[in-house]
């Protein structure tokens, strides 16, 4: 078993068929991270283009001050598996995740490390390709759009305000790593990682970074299929990777919000409203447990007793808003008590 925190920083770099970029990558690493208290962990994820031989040659160079670890996986398992393998073999107080294709600048990685190393209250920084005033080059409209939509959905699901969940440049303190258990083997690792950090109540800071996209001819591996899979991972981490009490709250909230929807529209319109409100309920159930949800449901029921027709719809809406307000206050009151799991 490795010694905890025997290095200041571990840089984990997954590599799959990146022979065109490796020499420049290590020139940049040597320029910005050539220190004895730093380790570079390269996980060769079953490369077949000659990357393996080049990495072995780079490792033989004896002028590096940093520790160079090279881990070879026999077959291609995916970025997520390579990242998990690198983290398991890391010794640093901080773990920095860096892609090998140089779409993200090593200089930005150094700035992020300096920032988190100087401020011990910060435990997690994500790079963001959308925040910076730095140089960017990106012609992939669809990939860019999906990335922004995914970040928006993630923010709704987890009550966050992140601009770029998918950015591959991240730095985490060892205390964060010890709290999470990654399991996704492909590009969904970014969503898995972000969701677990939030679930464990760590605040995610963002840092604007440069971005230089590469073309498919240059070896870009993310496709529209990965974009669709990312929606699956968002649903999975939010609605299935939960405790039993949270899943029960989600089902309960779907029921009573469907009840609210039944007061709107007629015919097919009424069915549509029920579905829309039930979806809203699934999100409410994430944030409010059984007793908080019961407060909301009770006030909705009281509101349904007033008015007729459209008047009832308005009354239900007003009492629903009042119920959410009271539920939030109640949840906050019981947050640090033994009853917090019920609110």
Observed structural traits:
single chain; 343 residues; alpha/beta; Spore Coat Polysaccharide Biosynthesis Protein SpsA, Chain A; seven-stranded mixed beta sheet; two-stranded parallel sheet; 12 helices; 14% strand
- How are helices and strands ordered from N to C? EHEHEHEHEEHEHHEEHHHHH
Which architecture of the largest domain per CATH?
Answer: Alpha-Beta Complex
In the CATH scheme, what's the topology name of the largest domain?
A: Spore Coat Polysaccharide Biosynthesis Protein SpsA, Chain A
Instruction: Output the number of helix runs.
Output: 12
- The assigned structural class equals alpha/beta
Indicate the percent of residues in helices: 40-55%
Number of domains: 2
Overall number of strands:
9
Give a structural overview.
With about 350 residues, the protein is an alpha/beta fold. It folds into 2 domains: about 5-240, Spore Coat Polysaccharide Biosynthesis Protein SpsA, Chain A; about 245-340. Helix content is about 50%, strand content about 15%. It is built from 12 helices and 9 strands. The chain has helices at about 20-35, 50-60, 80-90, 105-120, 140-160, 175, 190-200, 225-240, 245-260, 270-285, 290-305, 310-335; strands spanning about 5-15, 40-45, 65-75, 90-95, 125-130, 135, 170-175, 205-210, 210. The strands form 2 sheets. It has a 7-stranded mixed β-sheet, with helices on both faces. Strands 6-9 form a two-stranded parallel ribbon. α1 links the parallel β1 (about 5-15) and β2 (about 40-45). The mean pLDDT is about 90.
């Amino acid at each position: 078993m490795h010694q905890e925190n025997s290095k200041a920083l571990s840089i984990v770099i997954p590599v799959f068929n990146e022979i065109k970029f490796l020499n420049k990558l290590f020139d940049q690493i040597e320029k910005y991270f050539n220190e004895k208290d730093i380790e570079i962990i390269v996980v060769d994820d079953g490369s077949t283009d000659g990357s393996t031989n080049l990495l072995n040659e780079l490792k033989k160079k004896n002028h590096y001050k940093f520790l160079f670890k090279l881990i070879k996986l026999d077959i291609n398992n995916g970025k997520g598996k390579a990242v998990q393998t690198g983290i398991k073999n890391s010794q640093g107080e901080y773990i920095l995740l860096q892609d090998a294709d140089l779409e993200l600048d090593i200089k930005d990685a150094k700035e992020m490390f300096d920032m988190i190393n100087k401020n011990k209250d910060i435990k997690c920084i994500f790079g963001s390709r959308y925040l910076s005033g730095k140089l960017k080059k990106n012609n992939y409209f669809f990939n860019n759009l999906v990335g922004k939509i995914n970040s928006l959905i993630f923010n709704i699901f987890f009550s966050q305000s992140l601009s770029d969940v998918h950015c591959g440049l991240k730095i985490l303190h060892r205390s964060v790593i010890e709290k999470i258990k990654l399991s996704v083997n492909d590009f969904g690792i970014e969503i898995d990682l972000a969701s677990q950090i939030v679930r464990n109540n760590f605040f995610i800071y963002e840092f604007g970074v440069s971005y230089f996209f590469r073309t498919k001819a240059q070896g870009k591996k993310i496709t529209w299929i990965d974009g669709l899979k990312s929606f699956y991972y968002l649903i999975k981490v939010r609605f299935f990777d939960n405790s039993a009490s949270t899943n029960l709250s989600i089902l309960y909230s779907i029921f009573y919000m469907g009840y609210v929807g039944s007061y709107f529209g007629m015919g097919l319109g009424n069915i549509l409203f029920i579905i829309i409100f039930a979806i809203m309920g699934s999100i409410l159930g994430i944030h409010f447990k059984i007793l908080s949800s019961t407060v909301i449901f009770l006030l909705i029921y009281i509101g349904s007793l007033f008015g007729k027709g459209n008047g009832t719809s308005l009354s239900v809406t007003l009492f629903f808003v009042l119920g959410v307000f009271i539920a939030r206050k109640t949840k906050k009151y019981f947050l640090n008590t033994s009853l917090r799991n019920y609110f």
